[in-house]
Amino acid sequence: MSNKLVTRIVALLCLLAGFAIGMNVLGLKDRSYSVKEGDCFYREPSVTAQLADNFSRGEELDVTDKLELAAPTAVKVLQTKIVEDKNRTKYQLREGDVYKLVEARMDKANTPCVIEVQTVKGATAKLEVDKALLQPVDEGTWLQVRSKGGAGAWVRVQSRWY
Questions:
Q1: Nearest to residue 39, comparing CAs of 157, 160, 145?
Q2: pTM of the predicted model, to two decimals?
Q3: CB atoms within 10 A of CB 126
Q4: What is the pLDDT of residues 119-161, one digit of tens each?
C-alpha cells in the first residue's frame, strides 16, 4: 500500500472514532440511573412542574438527556412558616408557594437566603429565610430518564443548595 492510501485510511478511522465518541455511540458516559429512596420525578426539569409517576426503588432507568442549570431564580416553600422582616412585620409562607429569589448565598451553608414576597396589598417585601425551609427552582443537574416500558420523567441528581 502506498503512504497516501494509508494516510487516508487512518484519517477516516480517526474521523469515525471522533464521531462515535462525540455522539456517545460507544457508551462512554453513564447511560443508566438507579432509582434511590426519596427521588422525586417531574414531567419537566423543575420542582414546580407536575410530578411524574414514581418508579420503584432500585429500578434501572435509561438516561436519555442531561441538563445543567445554573443558580436558582426562585424557591419553593417546603412547609408553612411565619417569617418576620426587619420591621417585625409577619408574613406567612405557605407550603408549595414559589417566590422570587433575590440573594441565594450559595457559598455558605447556614446563611439564610433572601426572597421577595408580594403582600396582599400589592407591596413587595424582602425576607431572610432559612434554606432548610426552601427548595431551589431550576437549579442543579437534571437527568431525563425512561423506564423499559416507556414512561419518562426528569430527576434532579445534583444540587449546590444546602
A1: 157
A2: 0.64
A3: 13
A4: 888 888 899 998 888 888 878 888 999 988 777 899 988 877 7
